[in-house]
Amino acid sequence: MSIARAVAAVSRLSPKSSALLICDMQEKFRNHICYFPEIVEVQSRLFEVAKILNVKVIATEQSTKALGHAVSELGLDRSNVPIIEKTKFSMCVKPLEEQLGPEIKSIILCGIEAHACVFQTAFDFLAKGLAVHVVADATSSRGMPDRMYAFKQMEKAGAIMTTSECVILGLIGDADHPKFGEIKKFVLTTAPDSGLLTGAEPPSNSSSSSSSDTSPSSSANTAAVS
C-alpha cells in the first residue's frame, strides 16, 4: 500500500474508531468568542449525530472556578457526557486519554480557543499518531486572525481541516445506512455562517464592545491560570 493510501485509510472517519472532543465551551466565553452562537449551533448538530451513531463524545472545561461550566444549550450534562476539568491548555490529559481507549484512531476536534487549547490538543494527538479532524465551523477564538492562522498551522502540522457537514457525511458513509433517515436533516439544513469565507469578525462581536462580564484576560485560557 502506498503512503498516500495508508494515510487516507487511517484518516477516514468511522463511528467505532472516532471520538468527538468538545473543548472548553464555557459560559464565561460567551460574549468574547467570534461567532459564539453559530459555533454552539454547529457543535449541537455534531453532538446529535454523534449520539445517533454512538460515536464517543468527551468534553473538557478549563479551570471552572475562573471560567464556569459548559453552556447549557449543548446539553452535555443531560446526556451524561464525560466532562473533564483541566488546567493544561491541551485536552490531551490522562483522564481524557483513559476515556478514549485504544480503539479510537481519529479525533473529531472542535471548541475554543482555536489558537490555544484546540491548537495544542491537535498537536498533542498528532504526536501520538492519531488522525485529527479539526471542525473549522465549530471552532473559534476571540479574534479572527488568531482563529484563521491557527487553522493554517494545524493543517501544516498534519491535521485535517474540515467542516461539520463533511464530518457528518464521513461518519454516515452511505445513503443506505440504517440511520441515514435520522441524520439527513442535519445536512439538508445548511450550517450557520461563522465567518470562514470572509475571515471577518461579526458586526455585533462583543469582544470589541463593553460587557458586564469580565473578559477572559489576554487569552481565553490564560485567564484560567490567574
UniProtKB/TrEMBL annotation:
Start and end residues of each stretch annotated as Disordered: 194-226
InterPro entries for this protein: Isochorismatase-like_dom (IPR000868), Isochorismatase-like_sf (IPR036380), Isochorismatase_domain (IPR050993)
Domain Isochorismatase-like: 18-165
Pfam families: Isochorismatase
Biased composition (Low complexity): 202-226
Family: Belongs to the isochorismatase family.
Protein name per the record: Isochorismatase domain-containing protein 1
Protein species of origin: Plectus sambesii
